[in-house]
Amino acid sequence: MITQKIGFGGSDRSSFAADPARSRGRFFAEPPSPTRTEYQRDRDRVVHSTGFRRLREKTQVFLVDEGDHYRTRLTHTLEVSQIARALARALRLDEDLAEALALAHDLGHPPFGHAGERALDAAMVDYGGFDHNAQSVRVVTLLERRYPRFDGLNLTWETLEGLVKHNGPLTDRAGRPIGRYTERGIPQTFTDVSAQNDLWLWSWPSAEAQAAAIADDIAYDTHDIDDGLRAGLLSLETLADLELPGRILADIANEHPRLATERVIHELGRRLITVLIEDVIAESLRRIERMAPTSSDAVREGGEAVIAFSEPMRKADEEIKRHLHTAVYRHESVMSVMGEAEDIVSRLFARYRSDPESMPASWRPGPDLDDRAAARQVADFLAGMTDRYATAEYRRLFPAA
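Structure for Deoxyguanosinetriphosphate triphosphohydrolase-like protein, as requested:
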């Protein structure tokens, strides 16, 4: 269980905001910082981590070497962080906790984006599968090795909770998996970390964690449109057929009838982010008034999200996501490149499993590990790779490919 309650807080917070002065603390007790709250320390530990630096050369949608201006996993993360802070500030939440969660939420993404995740999940199907959200938790609890007394970053209870519940509650009150975890069960990493820290898997996370999660949705809706337009997979004409982008494009055309296409694209992105953020703020204020939470725990036990899109905006968001899925993520050119990326990850996993000596000495599974643990260690090694490193490893181990 968490052993320490430390830190100091500010006064300009909602009654239901997370308060670092009342944090449930860290698993390993540490003396408080004289200059930073506990959530500021969490944010700083994430920023200084090895996993965070690697995000610079990990794919978001388009491979890192396909162009200098496409988003990487790092630039996506920074955009999520900015949006999460904006939401937290408007709703008088703890901005530092929201930012820490935004910065950490994708630490577990493997190389080549979701293609790498699909390949690792297939390779690990007999060993518990692979989930990038669970891998983010492994990074901050086990794989970062920077401190003399513990593995991981020793983050606060609230930050761990927000990472584990990035997609909302994992179980019902009886402990039965719900939602996305109904079919395959809850990743072992989540259950292990919750067993140590009692993370209330049945509840919603803090309002700050919900703000970080919806900021993730807003960020990739808007920047995937921008990248899709830049790549020529989307057009302003087809986006005009969608309800929300179409309305924004019509307003831009009325206000600036001869605006250059490049500026139209930038203005679309800017206005789209603004509309989505303002909708979340307005809808969240309505829910806050109705639910009247008086503490962070009241948010957890509220039975529904307190930070959310309005129903019309939720439908508009889903329409955007469907279009991006068809026109960008499943486009033939993207699928071809991602198919090659999946093959790289699959073949590297098989090679490391059959020939552990081909791995760096510090990562080779030891003789004391059973088959499941050895496979997980290989997955940990692969998940930490950047696109560039994975490609270099592939060329080293498969020179004739």
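The chain has 17 helices and no strands.
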